[in-house]
C-alpha cells in the first residue's frame, strides 16, 4: 500500500460567515430603546434595580382589544379564556379579566390561582393531563368546564359527578388532529383522526352520567399558518355533526385553544417576525370560516372559546439588564475525531492557539429568566443611543453555567459595564417558567395606562427563597438534648 506524502487531515465543516464587504452587514447605526411607555429606562433601573421586568398595561389592553375585535366582528359568539401558564402574575391576569376574559388553567395551582383572583368556576376552562381528584372534584362542584384528556380522567369525572350528584356539568373532550402542523401535539387528548375521540364520546354517552357538550383542540404554539385553524375548525364541526347524527349530542362549545404567534422570531427563521406573523384578523378569518362553512341550516353557532396566550402578552413584556463585563470569545480549532484503535492514519492534535475572536458581553440577567431564549431570538438593543458600528456579539448571562448564553450574534455597538440593554418581547412564558437557581428573581413592574409605575412582583430575597426549607436537628443536638 502506498503511503501518502502528507499527514491525513480529517474533513471538517466550517460555518461561512456573510462577508461584511462595505463595513458592516448589520448597518452602521444601532437601534436603541430609551423609554418604555414614556418612562425612561434609566429611571426604571434607578428606582427598581437591574435586572428588571417591565410590563406595559397599555399594550396588554390594546392587544386584547385588537384580538377580540378581530373575532367579534366575524364571529360574535367568541369567548377568550386567558391561558394562565403563559403569564400568571395576578396583575397581568387581572388586565385580561377586566377585559372580559375567562381563565384557562392546566393544574391545581392554576385553578386555585384563578379562584383566588375571584374568577367563578363557571368561567374557568380546566385543561391539562393531570387533574388530581380533589381539585377535579372542586372544579366540577364549582361548574368549571372540564376538558377531558384521557380515559382514566373520563372515568374519574364520572365517579365524581355520580358521588356528588352534580347536575349537567359542562364537559368537553380534548382531541388532537392533523391540521397540517408538525409535530402534531399527540401527547394531549384523544385522537380525532383514528377514531379514539369517537370511542371516548361513545363511552361518555353510554355511561349516561355526564353530557358531552364541547370539543377542544390546541394545535401547538407559534403557529404561522392560519389555514391550520380552518382545517381544525372544519374537523371539529364534522365531528360535532357525527355526534349529533349518531348519538343525538348537541355540541354547543368549540374551543380552538391557543397558538397564535407573537412578534418574536424563532432561531433559524429567515424572515423576521414582522414579516411572517399573521394578524389576529387572519386567524379570525380562518377560524370563523372553518366553523361557518360547516354550519347546518338552522343550527345555532356554537360558542367559540380561544385560549390564546403568547400573542396576547409577549409584546407587553421587556427585560432590562445591565452589562457587567466585556469579553472576547476565543475560538479553538475543533479536536479531530478519536481514531479507531490500531487503525487509520495517526492524527495531529489541532493547534491549541485560539484563532478568531468575537465580542461577548456579560450581563446581570441569565437564561433562568429567559426560558424562551431556547427557541426565540429577541430584539436586544442598548437603552441609549450608542455610536459605533454594531458587531455580532454574544450575550452571556450571570449564571455560573456554560449553557447560560442568552443570545449569540446579536448586533450591538461597543458597550461598557453599566450600560443597560432592553430585551423584547419577553412577556410570554419567561416569568412563569423562570427559575431562581443561583440568583434572586428580579422585580417586575407595570407601567399603568395613566403613567404610574407599580411593582407587580417583588424581587426575591434570602428569606423568601428559604421560607420552605427546614433544618433537621443534628445527631449532636439530639444527644445534647438527651443529656440536658
Ligand atoms: C391547552 C393550551 N391552551 C392554550 C395554550 C396557550 O398557547 P399559546 O401561548 O401558544 O397561545 C397552551 C400552551 O401551551 C395550552 O397548552
How would you describe the overall organization of this protein?
The chain has 484 residues and is α/β, with parallel strands linked by helices. The protein contains 13 helices and 22 strands. The strands form four sheets. Strands 3, 14, 15, 17, 18, 19, 20, 21 and 22 form a nine-stranded mixed β-sheet that branches. An eight-stranded parallel β-barrel has the order 4-5-6-7-8-10-11-13, surrounded by seven helices. Helix 5 links the parallel strand 6 and strand 7. Helix 2 packs parallel to helix 10. The longest helix is centred in the middle third of the chain and has 22 residues. Bound molecules: pyridoxal-5'-phosphate. The site of pyridoxal-5'-phosphate has 15 residues, from helix 11.
